[in-house]
Amino acid sequence: MNQVPAIKLNNGTLMPQLGYGVWQVPDAEAERAVGAALEAGYRSIDTAAIYRNEAGTGKAVAASGLAREELFVTTKLWNGPKQKWGRDQVLRAFDDSLAKLRLDHVDLYLIHWPRPMRDDFVAIWKTFEEIAASGRAKAVGVSNFRPADLARIAAESELVPAVNQVELHPLFPQPELRAVHAERGIATEAWSPLGQGKELLTLPAVTAMAAAYGRSAAQVVLRWHLQHGNVVIPKSVTPARIRENLDVFGFELSAADMAALDALGAGTAGRRIGPDPAEFDV
Ligand code: NAD
Question: Does the domain formed by 6-197+228-247 have CATH 3.90.78.10?
């Protein structure tokens, strides 16, 4: 049974609060991995043009036999190549993603990185507004945007992004950014929600809490996100972990345990795992 609650985005679209991320899953494996996730009960899939597994993801979606309206598919514009991202280029990239996914619409389309040094994300966003108006994306949003980038979008365009997908986990909790999202009506989606399965899941504070709840460290961390209202997209290619990461609705962390996990991130502003959006431009 799928117990994943839905978050209502700022345009009324419903988004499952927990989904399956497919970064670093090779295209040839994506069909099996996404198929296992759909079989386990996930209904939201997070891919991107640069992950180069939209085709495998699309095959799994088609093979699942699930009704399109039961699924929530996210992909992202790879505004990577140093070219001018005019309207035509953005629309062509979007068409290409839809074709690979074998879909006539996605549920969420994101600008993958702000690349502020190029000064072109507002122009890209204007084409995203057009894509949203066409209905070929039920909602549009951004990824890795900083408060200043969100302020520019607000000042220079009409549409508020539905989602900002950013690195976020107990060791990099981004409280200021979450407050900005709340103020602007933007849903917070956490990438690398498990801290990529590294240090975070081995911290004594986390493993002791997991033992106390009779759950895994990953499940405890996912509960922390859900109770903060974050959308999460944990990734695994191991069927048992794929199921485990979805099985997080039968328990709740106490307020004291939430506070203990919050405390892990205090003073860790520099502890991101991934690139800094202020500098990232490849
Ligand atoms: P994650 O935090 O989801 O960690 C995934 C890793 O954690 C796995 O590879 C595995 O090693 C481990 N793991 C998973 N489940 C586990 C479990 N139950 N127990 C123990 N270990 C477990 O990291 P991620 O893959 O970087 O992020 C998730 C998704 O976020 C990606 O697949 C992608 O869809 C998205 N993402 C987006 C961006 C972006 O720029 N927008 C960047 C990175 C990731």
Answer: no
d(CA 22, CA 246): 15
| pLDDT tens profile 90-117 | 999 999 999 999 999 999 999 999 999 9
Inter-residue contact 115 to 79 (CB < 8 Å): yes
> Which ligand 1 atom is the nearest neighbour of the CA of 191?
30
pLDDT value at residue 170: 96
End-to-end CA distance of the chain: 41
Cα separation of 185 and 84, whole Å?
Answer: 30
Any idea where the domains of the chain sit in the sequence?
Answer: 6-197+228-247
Catalytic residue among 42, 51, 109, 213: 51
Instruction: Give the span between the Cα atoms of 142 and 122, in whole angstroms.
Output: 11
For residue range 105-157, what is the model confidence (pLDDT) as tens digits?
999 999 999 999 999 999 999 999 999 999 999 999 999 999 999 999 999 99
Instruction: Tell me how far the alpha carbon of residue 107 lies from the centroid of ligand 1, in angstroms.
Output: 21
